[in-house]
Design brief:
The complex is a heterotrimer of chains A (288), B (337) and C (413). Chain A has helices spanning 3-30, 37-53, 59-86, 93-116, 140-162, 164-174, 176-181, 186-211, 220-233, 238-259, 263-277, and strands spanning 130-132, 137-139. Chain A contains eleven helices and two strands; from the N terminus they run ααααββααααααα. By secondary structure, chain A is mainly α. Chain A has one domain (3-87, 137-277). In chain A, 74% of the residues lie in helices and 2% in strands. In chain A, strands 1-2 form a two-stranded antiparallel sheet. In chain A, a hairpin with a 4-residue loop joins strand 1 (130-132) and strand 2 (137-139). By secondary structure, chain B is an all-alpha fold. Chain B has a two-stranded antiparallel ribbon. In chain B, strands 2-3 form a two-stranded antiparallel sheet. In chain B, a hairpin with a 2-residue loop joins strand 2 and strand 3. In chain B, helix 5 (64-81) packs antiparallel against helix 6 (86-108) and helix 10 (190-200) packs across helix 12 (212-238). In chain C, helix 3 runs parallel beside helix 4, helix 5 (162-176) packs parallel to helix 6 (194-205) and helix 12 (334-348) packs across helix 13. Chain C folds into two domains: 38-162 and 329-389, Rossmann fold (3-Layer(aba) Sandwich); 164-295 and 394-407, Rossmann fold, CATH 3.40.50.2300. Chain C is built from 13 helices and 15 strands. Chain C has helices at residues 2-24, 53-73, 95-108, 122-129, 162-176, 194-205, 223-231, 243-255, 272-279, 281-284, 304-321, 334-348, 354-361, and strands spanning 38-46, 75-77, 80-90, 113-114, 135-139, 156-160, 183-187, 210-214, 236-240, 262-268, 288-290, 365-368, 371-374, 391-397, 400-407. The radius of gyration of chain C is 23 Å and the shape is globular. With 413 residues, chain C is an alpha/beta fold. The chains are: A mainly alpha (288), B mainly alpha (337), C alpha/beta (413). Chains in contact: A-B, A-C, B-C.
C-alpha cells in the first residue's frame, strides 16, 4: 500500500481527532451531544475563508480569529438556547437539547447558503506547494493540518492539566455537585467548555478549508464521522476521542483504497458492531 | 410535558366538521398541485406520528425516513421486479418495515438514549447505501419507476388512479384516518400511559414491574409499520423511488415537523406540524432566496423549543385559543349562574 | 346562543385561513397583452439550492437574457408571432422537489412545456408531464436509461445526449492526446448497471483503452483513487461527478506528484477562477471540460445566427456586470431545447397540439447553437427523440478556457 494513503489517512485522522475531542469535551461537562458541531466546523471554515480573502489576514491568525468567533457563537448558543431548554422535565431534557441542536444544523446550513452563496469556494492559495520526498510528495497544507492539530492538542493538554481553569473543568466533569460546593460556577464552566468545543470544530474547519473546499454542506460528513469516532473510542473519554479519531481516519483511507465504493458501508457496519458488542468503546467507562 | 386531553377542548362535532371539510375538498378543487400538497403532507404526517410515538417512549429516532424507504422499496420491488399486484405489495411493505424495526429494536433499544439515536443515524445511511449498491433489486442510483395502483371497480363506479389525482387524495385520507385511529386508541389506552411513564422515569417504571424493552419495541415496531405504509404510498404517488429521496436529512425534517407540531397530541400535533411545515416549505422554495427553507425549518424548531412550554407546539396554540375563547367564557357563564 | 356564535366564528376563520393557504400556492395567471407577440409559457425545473446549485444558479441569468434576445424576433407560426416566457423553479435535484416543481409549473403557472431540465429526477417529472400531455425536454443520462418507455412516455424529448456525449467527449480526448496510454473514467454513480455496460461496449468498439472506476458520493479525499488510477496506467482521467469532486481530484493528483496526469470533468467549466482558487493555479492548468462556445467549433458547423445570439447574450451580461462574462456552459441546453420546440411548432403548424408537435419532432431536422441534427433513432431506448450535440472540449490555460478538441456524434440508430 503506497505511503500516500497513510499520509492522507493521517490528515483525515487529525480532522476527526480535533472534532471528536471537542464533541467529547462538551459531552463530558455539559452532558449533551452537540449535533451542530458539524455546523461549527462549516462556519469556522467560512470565517477563515473570508478572513484570508477579504480581510487579508494571514492564515494562522485567521485560524485564531475563527476559533474566537465560533467559540463565541457556541457560548451564545449555550447561554441563550441550550440552557433555557435544559432546565426541564427529567429524562426528556436531553432529547430536547438533541432536537434543538439538530434543528440548528438546518438553521446554519440555510443561513450559510443565504449569506455566502452556494458556489464552491477554495483556498488553494494558502500554503501552496508540495514537499517532495522522493517516493511521494505531501502538500504543505496537509503538513499544516498535522502540525496545527498537534499544537492544538498540546495546548488542550496544557490547559486541561496545568491550568486552574483546566482543574476546574476536570472537577466539574467528575463531580459537578462537589465542585459547586467548592465555589466553582458550573454554569460558567459550561459556557467556557462549549466555547472551547466549538472553537476546536472551527479550527478543524479552517484547517481543512485549503485542503478541500468550502461550501455550506461541508459539515455533514465531519459530524457523522466524529460521532463514529466517539463511539469507537468511548463516549466519555477524551483519550478515547483521540484514539477513535486516529483509527477512523486511517481506516477511512485504507478501506477506500482497497474497496473503492464499497467503503461507505464498512465504517458504519464497524461502528454498529462495536456499539452492540462493547458500547463503551475502546476506552470508555461502562454504561449504566 | 403537559398532557392535554382533547376531549375537553375539541368536541366531537368540531372534529367531525373538520373531517367533513377535508373529505369534500376535491369538490372545490381538483387542481393536482393543491391536492398534491395535501397528499404529501398526509404522508409526512403519518411518518411524523410514528416519530412522536417513539419519542413518547423517550427515544429519539433518526431512522423514520429510512423506514419509509424500506416500505417504498419493498412495494416497488414487489410490484416492478416480481410483478405482484399493488395491494398485497403495499401491505407487505408495511409488514416488512415492521419486521425490520422489530429485529433492529430488539437488539438496539436495549442501549437506548444517545447511542440509540446514533445507531438510527447509522441505519439511515446503511439503508441508503444498500439501496445504492444492490442494484439488481433496487435499480441502484437510478432507482425504480413505480406504476400507479390499478383501477378499482365498485359496481358501476370506476376509480382510476392513472387519470387523476383525486383517488390518490382519498386514499391518503383513508390511510391517515386509519393511522390516526390506531395511534389515538393506543394513546388513550393503558399503553399510552405506560409509554409516557417509561419516558419520564424509566427507573421508577422498572421498579413498578414494567418491562421497558417490551414497550419500547412495541412503539418502535408499530411506528415502523405505518411509516412503511407511508413510504410505499409516497413511492407510488411520486411514481419513483431512489436512494437519496428518503435519507438522514428527511428524518431530521420529520423530527422538526413532530416537535413544531407539538408532541402533547400524538395525532393532532403531527397533522398540524406536517401540513404547516410542508406547505410553508413549498412556498419558501419558490422564493429566489436560496437556502431559506432549511433556515426557517431550523428556526421554527429552535423558537418552538425556546418559547413554548416543553412538549407543546402549534397544536397547543390552537388548543389554548380554543380554551380561551370557548371554554373559559363558558365556565364564567356557569359561575355567574 | 353565544356559544354557537363563537364556535362558527372560529371554524369560519380556520376555513378561510386554509383556503388562503391553498390560494397562496396557486398564482393567478397573468393577463395577456392585447397586441404584440403571443406569449408561450415554458417551465424549467432546475437545482437552485443544495449541492447541485452552482450549475443551476450560473444559468439563471444567461437563460433569461437569451430569451430576451430570442424574443426580439420571436418566431412565427402561420401568421402569428410568438414569444417565450420562462419560469424557473427550484426542484432541489430530488424526486419530491421535481414532482412538486412540475406540478406547480403545469397546474399553477399553466405552462404547456417543460424545458431545460438537467437535474437527476427525470422519472418523477416524467410521471407528472406525460399524463398531462406536457412536452418534456430533458437530457439522457444514467437516470433515464432503464426507466424510459416509449409507450407510456410519449411526450419526452431528450435535447442533450448526456450519456452518449461522455463517450464522444472521451473520443475527443483521444483526438487531443493521440499518444495517450489509457483513459481513466472515474464515475460518481455507484454500482455497475446496464447503462455503463453499453457505454463501455461502445468505447471498446472504438478501440479506446480505458479503465472504469466508481466512487461513492461525498468523497473529498481522492488519494486512494488517484493512486489506483495511476497504478492502472491512466494518464488521462475523466471525472464524471460534480465540479467539487473533479477539482479535488485535480488538486490532489498534483500534490501527490502526478503532474503528467491530465484531469477534467464531464461538465462545462463554470468559471476558471473557481478552479484556480480551489485547486491552485498550477494544478488547474490543462483541466478539461465541456466546451460550449459554438462559434469556435472547428468541425461542427453552427448556424451563425444562433452563435450570434449567444454572443449577444454574453455581451449584454458583461455590460450589466461591468466586467467580461465568458461563461458559455449554458448554450447547449435551454436554447437548444427552445429552438427545437419553436422549429417543431413551425413544422407542425400549431402551438397547442402536443401530439402534432411531437410528430414533427420525431425524425425532424433542427438547427441549434450546437449544430444541425436529424432526430432519427427509432431504436435508441425505443425512442427517436434524442438530439446529438458534439463532444467538444476545452482546457484551462492561464485563466482562460481554450478550445481543445472535438468529436462529432455519429447518427443515432
Amino acid at each position: 500500500m503506497p505511503p500516500a494513503i497513510l499520509i492522507d489517512g493521517l490528515t483525515t485522522s487529525c480532522l476527526y481527532v480535533t472534532m471528536a475531542f471537542g464533541m467529547v469535551l462538551v459531552f463530558s461537562i455539559l452532558g449533551i451531544l452537540n449535533w451542530s458541531h458539524g455546523s461549527m466546523f462549516m462556519l469556522g471554515a467560512f470565517v477563515v475563508y473570508y478572513a484570508v480573502t477579504a480581510g487579508g489576514i494571514p492564515f494562522p491568525l485567521s485560524l485564531l480569529v475563527s476559533a474566537c468567533v465560533i467559540g463565541g457563537l457556541g457560548i451564545l448558543i449555550q447561554m441563550f438556547i441550550i440552557e433555557r431548554i435544559s432546565f426541564t422535565v427529567a429524562g426528556l431534557g436531553m432529547i430536547y437539547v438533541s432536537a434543538v441542536t439538530v434543528g440548528l444544523i438546518f438553521f446554519f446550513e440555510g443561513a450559510a447558503s443565504m449569506l455566502f452563496g452556494l458556489q464552491i469556494k477554495g483556498l488553494a492559495a494558502v500554503l501552496p506547494g508540495v514537499l517532495d520526498l522522493g517516493a511521494f510528495s505531501v502538500s504543505y497544507q496537509k503538513i499544516a493540518v498535522v502540525v496545527f492539530t498537534l499544537v492544538t492538542m498540546i495546548t488542550m493538554y496544557i490547559v486541561l492539566n496545568r491550568t486552574k481553569l483546566g482543574l476546574a473543568i476536570r472537577a466539574v466533569a467528575q463531580e459537578p455537585l462537589a465542585s459547586r460546593l467548592y465555589g466553582i460556577s458550573v454554569r460558567r464552566i459550561s459556557w467556557i467548555v462549549m466555547g472551547i468545543g466549538c472553537a476546536l470544530a472551527a479550527i478543524a474547519g479552517g484547517l481543512m478549508a485549503p485542503v478541500y473546499s468550502v461550501n455550506p454542506f461541508m459539515g455533514r460528513i465531519p459530524l457523522i464521522m466524529s460521532l463514529l469516532a466517539i463511539i469507537i473510542g468511548g463516549a466519555g473519554s477524551l483519550t478515547g476521542a483521540i484514539v477513535g479519531g486516529i483509527i477512523l481516519g486511517l481506516l477511512n483511507s485504507i478501506i477506500a483504497y482497497y474497496l473503492g465504493w464499497g467503503s461507505e458501508i464498512m465504517l458504519f457496519l464497524l461502528v454498529i458492531f462495536i456499539l452492540l458488542l462493547r458500547p463503551q468503546g475502546l476506552l470508555g467507562a461502562s454504561p449504566k | 410535558m403537559r398532557y392535554i386531553d382533547y376531549k375537553t377542548i375539541l368536541p366531537g362535532t368540531v372534529v367531525g366538521f373538520l373531517v367533513a371539510l377535508i373529505v369534500i375538498i376535491p369538490v372545490f378543487t381538483t387542481n393536482p398541485m393543491i391536492l398534491s400538497i395535501f397528499i404529501i403532507s398526509g404522508i409526512w404526517a403519518i411518518a411524523t406520528m410514528g416519530f412522536t410515538l417513539i419519542l413518547r417512549t423517550g427515544q429519539f429516532s433518526l431512522a423514520q425516513a429510512a423506514f419509509m424507504a424500506v416500505g417504498g422499496y419493498v412495494s416497488a420491488i414487489l410490484t416492478v421486479k416480481l410483478g405482484m399486484p399493488f395491494w398485497p405489495s403495499f401491505l407487505l411493505a408495511g409488514i416488512v418495515s415492521g419486521i425490520v424495526a422489530l429485529l433492529l429494536g430488539l437488539v438496539v433499544l436495549r442501549v437506548g438514549g444517545m447511542y440509540f439515536t446514533i445507531i438510527t443515524l447509522g441505519v439511515s445511511e446503511i439503508v441508503r447505501v444498500i439501496a445504492l449498491m444492490w442494484d439488481s433489486a433496487t435499480g441502484g442510483a437510478q432507482g425504480l419507476l413505480v406504476p400507479p395502483p390499478p383501477h378499482i371497480i365498485l359496481g358501476s363506479f370506476e376509480i382510476n388512479f392513472a387519470a387523476s389525482t383525486v383517488p390518490y387524495y382519498y386514499f391518503m385520507v383513508f390511510l391517515v384516518a386509519i393511522t390516526a385511529l390506531v395511534f389515538w386508541q393506543m394513546d388513550r389506552s393503558r399503553l399510552g400511559g405506560v409509554f409516557l411513564g417509561i419516558a419520564v422515569n424509566p427507573i421508577l417504571a422498572e421498579h413498578q414491574g414494567i418491562h421497558i424493552m417490551k414497550y419500547r419495541v412495541i412503539a418502535f415496531t408499530v411506528a415502523a409499520v405505518f411509516t412503511g405504509f407511508a413510504g410505499a404510498y409516497y413511492a407510488t404517488f411520486l411514481s419513483a423511488i431512489t436512494p437519496l429521496m428518503l435519507g438522514t436529512w428527511q428524518s431530521v425534517s420529520i423530527m422538526i415537523m413532530s416537535i413544531v407540531g407539538g408532541i402533547s397530541s400524538l395525532v393532532g400535533g403531527a397533522l398540524i406540524g406536517a401540513f404547516v411545515l410542508y406547505t410553508l416549505g413549498i412556498y419558501l422554495n419558490r422564493l429566489p432566496i436560496y437556502g431559506i427553507q432549511p433556515f426557517v425549518y431550523g428556526a421554527a424548531i429552535v423558537l418552538v423549543l425556546l418559547f413554548l412550554p416543553k412538549g407543546t407546539g402549534l397544536i397547543d396554540l390552537w388548543g389554548k385559543l380554543w380554551h380561551k375563547v370557548f371554554r373559559e367564557p363558558e365556565k364564567a357563564e356557569i359561575a355567574e349562574e | 346562543m353565544k356559544k354557537w356564535y363563537k364556535l362558527t366564528a372560529i371554524l369560519a376563520v380556520t376555513v378561510i385561513l386554509l383556503g388562503m393557504f391553498a390560494m397562496a400556492c396557486a398564482p393567478t395567471p397573468a393577463a395577456q397583452a392585447p397586441t404584440g407577440p403571443i406569449i408561450i409559457k415554458v417551465g424549467m425545473p432546475t437545482a437552485l439550492s443544495g449541492p447541485a446549485a452552482p450549475w443551476g444558479q450560473s444559468s439563471v441569468e444567461p437563460y433569461e437574457t437569451w430569451i430576451e434576445v430570442f424574443n426580439k424576433e420571436g418566431f412565427k407560426v402561420g401568421d402569428k408571432t410568438y414569444n417565450f416566457k420562462m419560469i424557473q423553479v427550484d426542484d432541489q435535484n430530488s424526486e419530491d422537489g421535481g414532482a412538486a416543481a412540475a406540478k406547480q409549473l403545469i397546474f399553477g403557472d399553466n405552462v404547456k412545456f417543460i424545458v431545460g431540465h438537467w437535474t437527476w429526477n427525470w422519472g418523477a417529472i416524467a410521471a407528472v408531464t406525460n399524463p398531462a400531455k406536457v412536452i418534456f425536454f430533458s437530457r439522457t443520462g444514467d437516470d433515464v436509461q432503464s426507466l424510459y418507455n416509449s409507450q407510456t412516455m410519449p411526450y419526452c424529448v431528450f435535447g442533450n445526449p448526456a450519456l452518449e456525449q461522455s463517450n464522444y467527449d472521451i473520443r475527443a480526448l483521444t483526438i487531443a492526446y493521440p499518444d495517450y496510454k489509457r483513459i481513466g473514467i472515474l464515475d460518481m454513480t455507484v454500482g455497475k448497471n446496464a447503462a455503463w455496460a453499453v457505454q463501455d461496449a461502445q468505447l471498446d468498439k472504438w478501440g479506446i483503452r480505458f479503465y472504469h472506476e466508481w466512487f461513492p458520493p461525498n468523497v473529498e479525499d481522492f488519494a486512494p483513487y488517484v493512486t489506483r488510477l495511476h497504478d492502472e496506467g491512466c494518464d488521462i482521467v475523466y471525472v464524471a461527478g460534480w465540479i467539487g469532486e473533479s477539482m479535488m481530484f485535480a488538486k490532489q493528483r498534483w500534490e501527490m506528484g502526478f503532474k503528467d496526469m491530465h484531469v477534467g470533468c464531464s461538465g462545462p467549466i463554470i468559471d476558471t477562477s473557481i478552479y484556480v482558487d480551489t485547486c491552485g493555479y498550477d494544478a488547474a492548468q490543462g483541466y478539461f471540460g465541456q466546451y460550449c462556445a459554438p462559434w469556435e467549433y472547428k468541425k461542427t458547423v453552427v448556424n451563425p445566427k444562433y452563435s450570434e445570439q449567444c454572443r449577444e447574450v454574453l455581451s449584454i451580461m458583461s455590460e450589466k456586470a461591468g466586467k467580461p462574462v465568458v461563461y458559455t456552459g449554458w448554450t447547449p441546453y435551454l436554447p437548444t431545447h427552445l429552438l427545437i420546440l419553436s422549429q417543431a411548432m413551425q413544422a407542425a403548424g400549431t402551438v397547442d397540439d402536443p401530439d402534432a408537435i411531437m410528430k414533427a419532432i420525431r425524425g425532424g431536422t433542427f438547427d441549434t447553437p450546437v449544430g444541425k441534427w436529424t432526430m432519427s433513432g427509432t431504436k435508441t431506448y425505443g425512442s427517436p427523440v434524442v438530439f446529438g450535440s458534439p463532444g467538444a472540449l476545452c482546457t484551462i490555460q492561464g485563466d482562460k478556457e481554450v478550445y481543445l478538441s472535438e468529436s462529432a456524434m455519429d447518427p443515432l440508430p
